[in-house]
Amino acid sequence: MNDREKQILYTIIAHYIKTGESVGSRTIEKKYDVGVSSATIRNTMADLEDKGLIEKVHTSSGRVPTKDGYKKYIDDIMPYISCDEYSDCFDSFEGLKSKQLSSIIKAITELVAKSSNSTVITLEPSLEKNRLKKVEMVYVNENRVFIVAITESGVVRTANLILKNYTTEYTIKKLSEYINNIIKENGYSLVELKQVLLNIGSLDEGFESDNTTKLHIANETSLLLHLENLESSLKFIEDKENFKNILKSIIENDKFSTYEVNVLFGADLGIKELENLSLIFTKFEYENELGAICIVGSTRMDYKENIAKLQYVNEILIKSLSYMQGIKLLG
């Protein structure tokens, strides 16, 4: 693309983001200082259309950006985006010195949603492999024990253990002491604890479910402004596993680096309900596990502003999570 094509493409995108309306060559000439005639603009727009970067809509003779047009625009502006001008948006963030992962993530999710006026979804890192701090084994009867497992990150997991063989309260007490000694001396994870317990009995949903991977959603209703098929979209939104699966696929994709802001289009995900939406997201790390925070909005969202805000969020996350891990080490 030459400079003139970039100038006209960026102008069309800026106009569409601001107004939601298509634009023609005469409007561009009159409203925007592009320095060329309407005829030149028209010819340039024809070239952009041939390249698949803009397209005509049925309702008018104007043009709007295509998905590829947005992608080109985002690729071009990404190296020049600065997060500094949006730091004021997060002045009220008070989770920096929290000792709880969920408190930090929830606060950031709500602030990003408020500042971007978009739906924000965040998936905390899975802490299945997180080291345990303590395990309590409460004897209920000769074949049932109530398990409470507390991780160093403050995650609490509970479950009922149904024993294969009848056992005394004294035996359970000694087993609890044995496991806690291992935790103290060598470290133990939830996964390892689960394996040990399954050797002597069966566990209910408390340990089997993935409730250590917590999903936060803020400003969820703003999605309704951008969804075309309301009935099917509402069903999609109501099932929170859909959002969790999207973020899990992002986390597991090595193409996306940690603490790097990226953009995906709903159409690229192959999900019909999200076809006219965009996702701006970043991955973050805690205890060697990954999480993700994602702004979900219309394809004509303000990419420059929202990308910058997530860049600033990365700085907050690095400081907050480092502080929290430092407190753990001191403790």
Automatic annotation (TrEMBL):
<dbReference type="InterPro" id="IPR002571">
    <property type="entry name" value="HrcA"/>
</dbReference>
<dbReference type="InterPro" id="IPR023120">
    <property type="entry name" value="WHTH_transcript_rep_HrcA_IDD"/>
</dbReference>
<protein>
    <recommendedName>
        <fullName>Heat-inducible transcription repressor HrcA</fullName>
    </recommendedName>
</protein>
<dbReference type="Pfam" id="PF01628">
    <property type="entry name" value="HrcA"/>
</dbReference>
<comment type="similarity">
    <text>Belongs to the HrcA family.</text>
</comment>
<keyword id="KW-0805">Transcription regulation</keyword>
<dbReference type="InterPro" id="IPR029016">
    <property type="entry name" value="GAF-like_dom_sf"/>
</dbReference>
<comment type="function">
    <text>Negative regulator of class I heat shock genes (grpE-dnaK-dnaJ and groELS operons). Prevents heat-shock induction of these operons.</text>
</comment>
<feature type="domain" description="Heat-inducible transcription repressor HrcA C-terminal">
    <location>
        <begin position="103"/>
        <end position="306"/>
    </location>
</feature>
<dbReference type="GO" id="GO:0003677">
    <property type="term" value="F:DNA binding"/>
</dbReference>
<keyword id="KW-0346">Stress response</keyword>
<dbReference type="InterPro" id="IPR036390">
    <property type="entry name" value="WH_DNA-bd_sf"/>
</dbReference>
<dbReference type="InterPro" id="IPR021153">
    <property type="entry name" value="HrcA_C"/>
</dbReference>
<keyword id="KW-0678">Repressor</keyword>
<keyword id="KW-0804">Transcription</keyword>
<dbReference type="InterPro" id="IPR036388">
    <property type="entry name" value="WH-like_DNA-bd_sf"/>
</dbReference>
<dbReference type="GO" id="GO:0045892">
    <property type="term" value="P:negative regulation of DNA-templated transcription"/>
</dbReference>
